[in-house]
Specification:
Layout (H helix, E strand, L loop, with lengths): L2 H13 L4 H11 L3 H6 L2 H4 L2 H5 L4 E10 L5 E12 L5 E7 L5 H17 L6 E6 L16 H15 L8 E5 L5 H15 L22 H16 L8 E5 L3 H12 L3 E2 L1 E4 L2 E4 L6 H14 L4 H6 L4 E4 L12 E4 L8 H9 L4 E3 L8 H10 L2 E3 L1 H4 L2 H15 L5 H25 L6 H19 L4
Parallel strand pairs: 3-4, 3-5, 6-7, 6-11, 11-12, 12-13
Antiparallel strand pairs: 1-2, 2-4, 8-9, 9-10
């Protein structure tokens, strides 16, 4: 590692000893920046690394709300505004019991480079709460009611509204924050501020949302994989693909893979993994959309409906299929470890396209890079979601609504640009085809140069 990067990493470890996810994300980036730091001593002189690893602002607040039994509940709310050098803070809100400051700082740090890669003028941020809409606080085995979710969202926004705005910070959805939650959050913001602005993305189509936004992350992940394969003169046609997750990203990755002639064979959730050896059909994917988006059920229901599917309780998808061409981890951070990576490589996997944020552990990343397969980090291949959020912001600013075809075309062009910029950076700095290094350097340089231009702020 470059000596400057090493000294900054050691400082980050000392100052953030209880934040493992954040430390993992920082180390992953700093490990790859050596060539560009060696070539640009001005970055060290201006302490760019010391500044880029510190959030510009961290907001933490309590969120009191009343459940359906009349009991008062209290959760923690957060917003990490990490870097605004190239645009207003932009990044999702996550509602999950795993949410803490380390997780949100890791996500916000990653978002800085991801947003830079999109070619759109967006800074990086992330937020959320340890609130769990999937678990009722008073009835075990049940989910929160719509009224409880609304009560929580309204309380959450009653504090968050002070810190966001269309030209300051534009949150979106993330884990467990879908159209329902965005609607409640937007309604409360509009009520308090008495203004209708594009302050949130992922909105419903009837009040400023963009077509293709729900599909964007999954579609973009597949478009990025297409571009990686094109470098090798290959396509996705006929490829056997394993996918983790069963939410928006996984659903639409599966949908796009089917459209392109590939065979997605797995989806997973916390109950386990479904495996369809012959490949999933569009009807199956549509059923999962209904199951997760409306019924809010588990994949055990999928296995009950489709006898050709095998269900593996409590399992992830990485060790199930005997033959694998491509893997798309689309669930959560560190879901794919070194042993999983070995299993995928043994099954013939030649491409891994991350649809989630940092889903591969460092051991898994090292295994993929050492094997020389096509491997894209999430900050590059899952950037389609935030890119389309940026397109939603543009539509809101113009008071226009673009067609699905126009948004999809722009998304496809953005994913190609991200791929091409990352690949070009990997070539320029001596590691052709290393998309980890290429994406980190391409994303970093744009932000670092903007920080240099704006002085010590």
């Amino acid at each position: 590692m470059n000596q400057y990067a090493q000294s900054v990493l050691e400082s980050v470890r000392l100052r953030n000893p209880n934040e493992p996810e954040f430390l993992q994300a920082v180390e992953e980036v700093l490990l790859t920046l050596g060539p560009v730091l060696d070539a640009n001593p001005q970055y060290e002189k201006a302490a760019i690394l010391e500044r880029i690893v510190e959030p510009e602002r961290v907001i933490m607040f309590r969120v009191p709300w009343v459940d359906d039994t009349g009991a008062v509940r209290v959760n923690r709310g957060y917003r990490v505004q990490f870097n605004s050098a190239i645009g207003p803070y932009k990044g999702g809100l996550r509602f999950d019991p795993t949410v803490n400051l380390s997780v949100l700082k890791f996500l916000g740090f990653e978002q800085v480079f991801k947003n830079s890669l999109t070619t759109l003028p967006m800074g990086g941020g992330k937020g959320g709460s340890d609130f769990n809409p999937k678990a009722s606080p008073h009835t075990p085995g049940k989910r929160c009611s719509d009224r409880e979710v609304m009560a929580f969202c309204q309380s959450f926004m009653t504090e968050l509204y002070r810190h966001i705005g269309p030209d300051t910070d534009v949150p979106a959805g993330d884990m467990n924050v879908g159209g329902r939650e965005i609607g409640y959050l937007f309604g409360q913001y509009k009520r308090i501020r008495n203004e209708f602005t594009g302050v949130l993305t992922g909105k419903g189509l009837s009040f400023g949302g963009s077509l293709i936004r729900p599909e964007a992350t999954g579609y973009g992940d597949v478009y990025f994989a297409e571009n990686m394969l094109a470098v090798k003169g290959e396509t996705l046609e006929g490829k056997i693909c394993v996918i983790s997750g069963a939410g928006n990203v996984a659903q639409y990755a599966a949908e796009k893979l089917i459209q392109l002639g590939a065979k997605p064979v797995t989806l997973s959730d916390r109950s386990g993994t479904v495996y369809v050896p012959g490949g999933m059909t569009r009807e199956m994917v549509d059923f999962v959309k209904e199951l997760k988006g409306v019924a809010r059920g588990e994949l055990t229901d999928f296995a009950a409906k489709y006898p050709e599917a095998k269900f593996f309780a409590g399992a992830n998808p990485w060790k199930i299929a005997e033959k694998v061409d491509c893997a798309f981890p689309c669930s959560r951070q560190n879901e794919l470890d070194g042993e999983d990576a070995k299993a995928l490589l043994a099954a013939g996997c030649k491409l891994v396209g991350e649809g989630a944020n940092m889903p591969s552990t460092p051991e898994a990343v090292e295994a993929f890079l050492s094997a020389g397969i096509l491997y894209s980090p999430g900050k590059a291949s899952n950037a389609g979601g935030v890119a389309t959020s940026g397109l939603e912001m543009s539509q809101n600013s113009e008071r226009l609504s673009w067609t699905a075809e126009e948004v999809d075309s722009r998304l496809k062009g953005i994913m190609k640009a991200i791929h091409d910029n990352a690949y070009a950076a990997s070539v320029k700095y001596g590691a052709p085809g290393n998309y980890v290094m290429g994406a980190n350097i391409a994303g970093f340089v744009k932000v670092a140069d903007a920080m240099l231009a704006q002085g010590i702020v």
